[in-house]
Specification:
By secondary structure, the protein is α+β, with helices and mostly antiparallel strands. The protein contains 9 helices and 4 strands. Strands 3-2-1-4 form a 4-stranded mixed beta sheet, with helices on both faces. The radius of gyration is 22 Å and the shape is elongated.
């Protein structure tokens, strides 16, 4: 989570800010979410430096926050109108800049982080559901076999797309699973000794469209159970702290 916000919520927050960037000079997160002492339902406090003179738009920043899917109240203060000098000093000193028109970098940085964080969260959820599927007895019901393979497909897709997104953050293009694995190897995201198993995972994923044949389905399942699940967990353990560290 970023500032106590779920990945999807933080991405929504940044999208709204960037959509209003023509009106903004700076956006600073302050209060409990910036300080790290927030509670589950704490408000999101934002201090805004608007472009001067203020530019009009069809909807205000506040209106877009209120009509969004965010489950939190977003409180805005206009720094140009704020008379409490102690609060302004505190915000300037302790706040986290989410957008800075002068550099054009902070909005892009935080949006990139939001996207990476969301992809990581989705991958972690899919991985936990695959773990759950592997506890089921496929001999008891063939639906467990089919369900496990389907969850593997989801997890695999989210895994390589997370690889692609993180590599893109590093300035590296990887537009297919095989390229993503090769580049991840170079960046030490996966271990060299496991490369053959990663490539085997690609091959087995390509077979999942034929798992209506039980023999083929069992072959794919065996790969998931004996090898692929461990590779996926190893990657998650490697990339998760790297993504978290981006925001520090």
């Amino acid at each position: 989570m970023t500032f106590g916000l779920a990945a999807t919520d933080f991405k929504t927050l940044m999208r709204i800010i960037i959509a209003h960037s023509a009106q903004l000079q700076r956006v600073i997160l302050f209060g409990s979410r910036a300080q790290g002492d927030y509670k589950t339902h704490s408000d999101i406090d934002l201090a805004i430096d608007y472009q001067q003179p203020k530019k009009s738009s069809e909807t205000t920043l506040q209106e877009d926050f209120e009509s969004s899917s965010l489950p939190y109240t977003v409180d805005l203060i206009d720094l140009a109108l704020e008379k409490d000098t102690r609060l302004k000093t505190f915000i300037q000193k302790e706040g986290v800049v989410l957008y800075d028109e002068a550099s054009k970098s902070n909005g892009d940085f935080w949006m990139t982080y939001a996207i990476l964080n969301e992809k990581l969260s989705d991958f972690q959820l899919a991985l936990s559901r695959l773990d759950e599927a592997l506890t089921k007895n496929i001999e008891a019901d063939s639906l467990y076999l089919d369900g496990t393979i389907q969850r593997f497909e989801f997890t695999y897709e989210l895994c390589w797309k997370l690889m692609k997104a993180y590599l893109s953050y590093l300035g590296i293009d990887a537009n297919n699973p095989r390229a993503a694995i090769r580049e991840s190897l170079k960046q030490n995201l996966i271990q060299d000794k496991n490369t053959p198993e990663w490539l085997e995972m690609i091959e087995k994923r390509n077979l999942t469209t034929h798992t209506y044949h039980k023999t083929m389905a069992l072959t794919v399942y065996a790969g998931i159970q004996s090898s692929f699940i461990h590779l996926l967990h190893d990657f998650e353990k490697k990339v998760s702290p790297l993504i978290v560290a981006i925001a520090k």
